[in-house]
Amino acid sequence: MTTYRLNGFMRQAITILVTLLGLLLLTFVIGRMMPADPVRAIVGEDATRETYEQVFRQLGLDRPLWEQFLFYLRDVLTGDFGTSIRTGRPVIEDILHVLPATIELATFAIVIGAGLGVPLGVLAAVKKDRWQDHLVRVFSLMGHSMPIFWTGMIALIILYAKLGWVGGSGRMSQFYIGMVPEKTGFLLIDSALAGQWDIFRSAINHLILPASLLGYSSSAYITRMTRSFMLDQINQEYITTARVKGLSNAQTIWRHAFGNIRVQLVTIVALAYGSLLEGAVLIETVFAWPGFGQYLTNNLIIGDMNAVMTCVLIVGIIFIALNLISDILYRIFDPRTR
Amino acid sequence: MSEIPQARSRASAAFRPAINIVRFLWGSPPSAFGLVVLTLLILVALIAPIIATHDPYVQNLGNTLQAPGGEHLFGTDELGRDIFSRLVYGSRITLTIIFLVSVIVGPIGLLVGTTSGYFGGRFDTVMMRITDIFLSFPSLILSLAFVAALGPSLNNAIIAIALTAWPPIARLARAETMTFRQADYIAAARLQGASPARIIWRSIVPMCLPSVLIRLTLNMATVILTAAGLGFLGLGAQPPLPEWGAMIATGRRYMIDSWWLVTFPGLAILAVSLAFNLLGDGLRDALDPKQMNRR
Fold first, then answer.
1. With an 8 Å Cβ cutoff, are A301 and B149 in contact?
2. B42 near B95, Cβ under 8 Å?
3. Spatial contact of B24 and B282, defined as CB atoms under 8 Å apart
4. What residues in A contact B139, CB-CB < 8 Å?
5. pLDDT of A285 above 80
6. A270 lies in the same domain as A129
7. Would you give the end-to-end CA distance of chain A in angstroms?
8. In this structure, are residues A144 and A157 in contact, taking their beta carbons and an 8 Å threshold?
9. How far, in Å, CA of B18 to CA of B29, rounded?
10. Distance between CA atoms of B96 and B227, rounded to whole angstroms?
């Protein structure tokens, strides 16, 4: 049994390694596809032929492609992702600096998404084919069908410009920028640590709208999966037994049926968290949220390929990690896999 | 299993199930809504010159940012162009995206899926690894990377979306192929001396086609949102083109005072992607045998 499990882990480790290698190959190839000349970007238009060729060699562009790929692998493994043309700093530093803002946003969003999606999914399953089920379906498909950048703008027009209920763009009011000592990069934590509750409130005020929209858009997937997991359970005989035993409806549904889908839900929520990154790219652009997504789009527009490819690579790695985590959680929580 | 020997006749009689499916979809209001919106979209695109009240490209700088009503149903944009007419012509771009992405993604997915399902072994492992790598990105992020490398334009956006949309199709086609691979009728074809290419093309592809087409429909909502997102970021269709996402991007600067610039293109995107989602949801119900048994 143990050797069997060890084999499973080994196989998984190899699979992940191969996937990572493929990921690197993909970003390498995309980086090479671009029509812009990386040497010109560094030396400028007026450089002499000698300077040009010197840089050309320095970048290793005279070597065969497979050798260039090996160089790229070596650089990445030693944590060197290149320098951003725009900021002149190592790309990875830039990214680590903006990542907390996105994690803060995405974490709030997933709490809202799961808090909305799971109960709605259970409701839809219990009331299958009745009006509640149809309503939930339309509501959640609506969230899945919205162009999130558009909904963000409409919400800003109504809730911020017209009604003034929430903060506008950015992570906090302009007035407070630079007043919080940066420790973790998570604004809510930093401002709480510093005891600056005004800023904390301002941050919540700015966070609530983009996080709700992101959460709503991710709730569609969570709702659908919850509904289908619950339907699988409700149709089983042990539920009939529980009912025959005389358990209340609420107890049958929440204790018995829901208790059995919790493990599956954890994995679904982990995957939904990863796909939030996609919405984050768009919503951060609309809300001028200084996070990962905005960093990515800003660099796309000016064509800073080092930064762009590193962002793509990091998203891929986060995805693989989330898949792995949901796999591990599944193993831990599901007694049948032991 | 008894159905498998009749496979060929099933493929040729594909019309009857199609009619049944449409009838089933028509029975549920949400799917019917989806059907109506998509039919409208096609109609509008076909007769755009008749419906449009103005030329979508003609600027009228004396008449900019007019509120909806009067001569301009949905108002005018920052260059005085009629928004309604631009939306009407924009439907053609949306349909082009849908059509081209399907035409690229379907064959690639089928080719990868059926060959790796049929041959199995190491070839299958390698192909599925590659598929997994593409699947390990959210589609918008990978499309962004491709467009960044290829340069922003509508064509490149379509290529980028297609490059990210084939893996689920390939997985599906592979899974289908695996179930037929050992079937008697395939063995019979092989014994008659048919080449693998012939077996795949004549006996396997037709069997995978229905589910691949359905899966393509299911993915269309994502394709439309990705295309609109690329347009919004300035990486898809370029300015004078009335692409809905790009229209929202330019309208963004004026959104506080002139809400109609962003509102109507957004509603158009929402309607079409919702229609595809509702239709897809209905299709899933119509074709999921598990769901059928429960009724």
1. no
2. yes
3. yes
4. 278
5. yes
6. yes
7. 10
8. no
9. 19
10. 11
List all residues of chain B from 135 to 164 with a beta carbon under 8 Å from chain A.
136-142, 144-151
Distance from CA of B12 to the nearest CA of A (A): 33
A283: contact with B, CB 8 A cutoff: no
Cα–chain center distance at B67: 33
Which CATH number do you get for residue A328? Answer: 1.10.3720.10
| Residue A48: domain span | 19-77
How far is it, in rounded angstroms, from Cα A126 to Cα A239? 12
How far is residue B283's CA from residue B281's CA, in Å, rounded to a whole number? Answer: 5
Which single residue is written with the structure tokens 């290149």? A82
Q: Which ipTM was obtained for this model?
A: 0.83
| Cβ proximity of B230 and B147 under 8 Å | yes
pLDDT below 50 — which residues of chain B? Answer: 1-5, 290-295
- Three-state DSSP class for A83? strand
Q: Which two tokens stand for residue A273?
A: 């968290």
Are A29 and A170 found together in one domain? no
Tally of domains in chain A: 2
pLDDT tens-digit map of A47-94: 777 777 777 777 777 777 788 888 888 888 887 787 777 777 888 888
Number of domains present in the structure of chain B:
1
B/e letters for A8-39, b = 16+ CB within 10 Å, e = fewer, are eeeeeeeeeeebbebbbebbbebbeebeeebb
Q: Three-state DSSP class for A229?
A: helix
How many Cα atoms are found within 13 Å in the side-chain-facing hemisphere of A149? Answer: 32
Judge if A182 and A224 occupy the same domain. Answer: yes
The CATH number linked to B190 is 1.10.3720.10
Residue from A338, A116, A136, A133 nearest A234 by CA = A133
B5 located within any domain: no
pLDDT, tens only, A122-179: 999 888 888 888 889 888 888 888 999 999 999 988 888 788 787 777 777 766 777 6
**pTM recorded for the entire structure:** 0.85
Q: Which residue has the tokens 């949901």?
A: A326
Rounded to a whole number of angstroms, the distance from the CA of B25 to the nearest CA of chain A is 14
Q: Which of B285, B280, B274, B272 is nearest to B215 (CA)?
A: B280
Structure tokens at A76: 């990445």
Q: How far is A128 from chain B (nearest CA, A)?
A: 11
What DSSP designation does A34 have?
-
Q: DSSP labels for B59-123?
A: --GGGTTPPSBTTBTT-B-TT--BHHHHHHHHHHHHHHHHHHHHHHHHHHHHHHHHHHHHH-HHH
Q: Closest Cα to residue A119, out of A252, A272, A253, A275?
A: A253
For residue B61, give both structure tokens.
């700088």
- Cβ–Cβ contact A300 with B under 8 A: yes
Q: Percent of chain A beyond pLDDT 90?
A: 12
Q: Which residues contact B122 (CB under 8 A, 6 or more apart)?
A: none
Cα–Cα distance measured from residue B243 to residue B177, given in angstroms and rounded to the nearest whole number? 38
On whether residue B24 sits in a domain, the answer given is: no
